[in-house]
Amino acid sequence: MTNSAAQLNHSTVLDKHVTGSPLNIGEGFTGIGFRHTQFEGAMDPIIMVDHYTMTVPTFGAHPHAGISAVSVLFEDTEGKFNNRDSLGNDFDIHAGDLYWLNAGRGAVHDEAPRLGAKIHGLQIFVNLPARLKHESPSSLHVKREDMPTLVG
Length: 152
What we know:
Elements: H1 3-11, E1 21-25, E2 29-35, E3 46-54, E4 62-64, E5 67-73, E6 81-85, E7 90-93, E8 98-102, E9 107-113, E10 119-127, E11 138-142
Antiparallel strand pairs: 1-2, 2-3, 3-10, 4-9, 5-8, 5-10, 6-7, 6-9, 8-11
């Protein structure tokens, strides 16, 4: 085992129970959030995870760089979640879909529920390795019907 592998194994052992922090943003965004600082390095390369419900547009168009933002909509999502970004995407994400924005050197995106929607999702922010931080941004939309599934 290399020295860095030994350090990784040591840093990934948590001896405490970690609970998320409540998230209440604006009029229509609630959830539970977990941040990398809560896990003593054990979440690396994950920066944060938010389990949320959103009923109205909350964040507006905003930039990301050097990370990937992965959004998964749970099956009980009602309505559509509109995704627009600086890559030219403008489409709706549905219950069971996944959208992966690899921001690379920079991208702007805006995800907002359509009128009357109740979005139940998980968003995971992943720190990109240094070699990918300056690459062109890209994205991947996996529809529910194309999602790989594991059968017990």
